Amino acid sequence: MKNRINYSLIAESYDKLHKEEQIKKLKLIEKNIKIIEPLLDVGCGTGISTSYFKVKYFGIDNNKEMIEIGKKKGYKNLIFSDAEDLPFKNKSFNTIISVTSFHNFNNMEKALKEIIRVSRNKNIAISFLKKSSKLNEFKLLIRKYFERLREIEEDKDIIFVIR
After folding, report:
1. In angstroms, rounded to a whole number, what is the distance separating the alpha carbons of residues 100 and 42?
2. Is residue 41 within 8 Å of residue 99, measured between CB atoms?
3. Of 4, 55, 5, nearest to 26 (Cα)?
4. Are strands 78-80 and 57-61 parallel, antiparallel or unpaired?
């Protein structure tokens, strides 16, 4: 991921700044896909998303400080890794989410292909920042790879639900 914001600088205050907003998105995701374990959270940050769902989960993020904060909170299955090179076997996860992180990835298409590779059943929800300059590029990519797709408008994001 290429960070436009230096998340290392805001890692300590990330939850205070974004937890409420993230929980709102997670509630929408929960209403629109069945959360089946194991769950993978791509771009998990401090573990807000992974802690919300009470299922077996793994979270990946490429910011060490964010991962360490999540681990200090007791979230054991947080892994330092890039979305473009997921450290999991094919078809490892029943549910995959990515909440407001795709716009930070260096190669969105490669990250999307990795999510497809590790998904067992295409039970996926990705929220994407509406004000991102990459939104139209992402819409083209996601439509290229998924036919069964629903878009849910949220305050700051569009949530793409794939089944």
Report:
1. 10
2. yes
3. 55
4. parallel
Dig out the tokens for 27 from the structure.
């509630």
- List, in order, residues 6 or more apart from 125 with CB less than 8 Å away: 29, 32, 33, 96, 97, 98, 159, 160, 161, 162
User: What single DSSP character describes residue 141?
Assistant: H
pLDDT score at 1: 38
Cβ atoms of residues 103 and 138 within 8 Å: yes
Q: What is the pLDDT of residue 65?
A: 87
How far is 49 from 98, CA to CA, in rounded Å? 9
For 12-131, strand residue ranges (E) read 39-42, 57-61, 78-80, 95-99, 124-129
- Nearest-5° Cα angle at 100, 29 to 95: 40
Beta bridge partners of 99: 127
Write the pLDDT tens digit of every residue in 44-81.
Answer: 988 888 778 989 999 999 988 889 989 998 888 999 99
Structure tokens at 75: 């979230």
Q: Which residue has the tokens 């940050």?
A: 45
